[in-house]
Amino acid sequence: MDSPEWTNEPDLASRRVGGSVVWANDELFAERENLIKPSRPEFQPWSFGHKGQIYDGWETRRRREPGSDQAIVRLGLPGVVSGVVVDTAFFTGNYPPFASVEAVAVDGYPSPDELSALDWTTLVEKSPLKGDSENSFQVSSSRRWTHVRLTIHPDGGVARFRVHGTPVADPRLLDLGSLDLAALENGARVVAASNMFYSSPSNLISPGFAAVMGEGWETARRRDDGNDWVVIALAGAGLPRLAELDTSHFKGNAPGWASLSGSVDGETWFEVLPRTRLQPDTRHRFPVEQPRQLTHLRLDIYPDGGMARLRLHGALTDEGRAAFTARFEEAR
């Protein structure tokens, strides 16, 4: 079965973008932290510990009294949620028959007790689950959330919990005169790409450094005369000052050259960085010699290959600041 379109959006809860499982009422058989691991679940038969079969997921004990089990996740990227996936991979006789999901938006850094005392909004009503399956639930909400709570009814195991959506940055926590215009955490997003055979192009604009090659964007080998490319809608209209093209971990498969183009409508393009030679496994930094306002950035790599990160440092224009702030206020 094909996955819903919204699963192509970033996982706001992933450990890779700074998510954390801040609390669970029970994790006797398997740790709650496994829920947001970016890797796919794994299973090793006949791998037993002191508490039974070792599972790559979150598993609670069998309930002998009424109730349900819960885990609270702080989103690494607060934002508008499009849908959630409750993945019960490898849980067959011990998966929860039902699950529900709630969310809350809060400033600061509350403790688990403070979070539990808040009024939560239901995103997914109590719904049936299938074992050893990716259970997908679309969410209809235009609000920005900072935390989500997964409830399993009554107990059991969940391998992964994915929260897909659109990041919405808080302008109060940023210097809008100096930021990464292309950062996912600031609201930028990939809108088109020529190829995503090995990995998602959204990895290019994810937070932090890539720890391994698989955390970047890599295309298939081209057998024609073309080249690969990706288009990013920036966090807002801005003036770029510095571009960073990072090929870290890409050694025999880094692009030979790259160029950057800008646009104010996503259709007509002008040069930001001319076609420039790249080195493998290297962070390249290039000043933008003649900055012009842009809302979209296009990266062309020649002819193919992989890149770990793409950064575009600069300042939002007055128009960009207004739109950036309005996006946050409208989602509160």
Automatic annotation (TrEMBL):
UniProt-listed InterPro entries: Allantoicase, Allantoicase_dom, Galactose-bd-like_sf
Domain (Allantoicase) ranges: 18-167, 187-315
Record pathway: Nitrogen metabolism; (S)-allantoin degradation; (S)-ureidoglycolate from allantoate (aminidohydrolase route): step 1/1
SUPFAM superfamilies, per database record: Galactose-binding domain-like
Domain of life: Bacteria
Keyword annotations: Hydrolase, Purine metabolism
Pfam families in UniProt: Allantoicase
E.C. numbers: 3.5.3.4
GO biological process, one term: purine nucleobase metabolic process
The UniProt record lists the keyword Hydrolase: yes
Catalytic reaction list: allantoate + H2O = (S)-ureidoglycolate + urea
Family assignment from sequence similarity: Belongs to the allantoicase family.
Record-given protein name: Probable allantoicase
Taxonomic classification: Bacteria, Bacillati, Actinomycetota, Actinomycetes, Pseudonocardiales
Name of encoding gene: alc
